Amino acid sequence: MQSHHQFSIASATTVVRLGEILGALSHALDLTEGQPNGHCVRCCWLGMQVAQVLDLTPTQLSDLYFTLLLKDLGCSSNAARICALYLTDDIRFKRDFKLVDSSARQGLEFLLNHTASQSGLVQRLRAVSNVLKNSDDIVGEVMQVRCDRGAEIARMMRFSEDVAEAIAGLDEHWDGGGRPAGLRGVEIPLYSRIALLAQVVDVFMAELGVDAAIAELKTRSGHWFDPDLVPVFIELLLRPDFEAEFNDPELEALVFASEPAHTGRVVDEDYLDEIASAFAQVIDAKSPFTHGHSERVAQYTDSICAEMGYSTERRRWMARAALLHDIGKLGISNTILDKPGSLTDTEFDLIKLHPVMSKEILSRVSVFQDMAVTAAAHHERLDGKGYPDGMSAEDLTRDMRILTVADIFDALTADRPYRPAMPLEKALSIMDDMVGCAIDIDCYAALQDAIAKS
């Protein structure tokens, strides 16, 4: 029996399903991994189909469900390191890596095709040599960071230790050749084993089709995969109606409405705050230059709102918008985010897509839909020269103007790839010149008042 929990937002009663919230936000994780839209949701559907033949309790089914949806929670934490070590586009690297098995031949081909491919010959040879020489340590480091961070964020969102450990064990292999702990056989959590199988099936379905997915399951059975689970997945893929169900436009709605999506979990205002804070950690882990950015913007936003007389309820809403305003940056390569020099026109055009992606992702979440437009407007200007929509002053709400001031202030006073953090006086001097053309005078005055009080 489904349990629809209710809570109030801005004096409106809203039905909230945890599966819908986190499933919608999982689209941001797909961006980071370079996967087609809905990858985590499809993995959830695949894994839960298989779970129907396993003897799992309702609690175990719920834990498996959220392991599948959130398997990539730690994916942003190694993006900058991949970019630095392999001198490559982290998103393309991650996308293509999911098609590689553990054979030496495929590994070497992947390495040669994805290491410093846009660099000069000398730099490329140096990078390839370094990766070959230190491959075990490098792969171990990259996987460890991802797995540890994913488990940590799952705990932040109140999930059980079983879910956290399953996310940490996603890259373990049945034969002990996986990472980061080299677990073997049934030492690997069941949820991890199911999630890895579901991931590979979805990746190969998207790239090469069902026959290729089945062939890959057979090839990796007993090596990567639990040999007892492989036949269950193959039986699923051979169902006459499988491809029609898998490609059904309503699949996501079915996943979000299923019983495990909300069993035993009440989503209230406090929990929504924790979810927003947890995803802010995912966002800010993408680049060392954005570490803590979303949380600081939320703090500055709240201070401005307090100075401007916002209600406690509205301040809470604004803080969530600030925490999630940059979620679209998960879809931008670190070759751009961390570039120390000036961006090319093409690169800047890509940067300008991140608020568009933020809006698209937040609009998927019923309880965040009304903040999606506000969050996406943090690079708009009063003079209409901002992005992505070039909104005019008349179109910019006070909420948008507050978030813009908070975002600019943190951008100036934090380290960036191309310059160190500015002293407070210099940052305020720059913002003085932006009043009236880029930022709102009243919102900026409220920020100054808040700074003076602190």
UniProtKB/TrEMBL annotation:
Q: Which UniProt keywords apply?
A: Hydrolase
This chain is encoded by the gene named rpfG
Top-rank taxon, per record: Bacteria
> Where in the numbering of this chain does the HD-GYP domain appear?
268-454
CDD domains assigned to the protein according to its UniProt record, in alphabetical order: HDc (cd00077)
**EC number per UniProt:** 3.1.4.52
The record's section on Pfam families has: HD_5
Q: Which residues cross the membrane?
A: none
Q: Which residues form a coiled coil?
A: none
Species, as recorded: Roseovarius aestuarii
Whether Hydrolase counts among this entry's keywords is yes
**UniProt protein name:** Cyclic di-GMP phosphodiesterase response regulator RpfG
GO terms for MF: cyclic-guanylate-specific phosphodiesterase activity
Which EC class, in a word?
A: hydrolase
The record's section on InterPro entries has: Cyclic_di-GMP/3'3'-cGAMP_PDE, HD/PDEase_dom, HD_GYP_dom
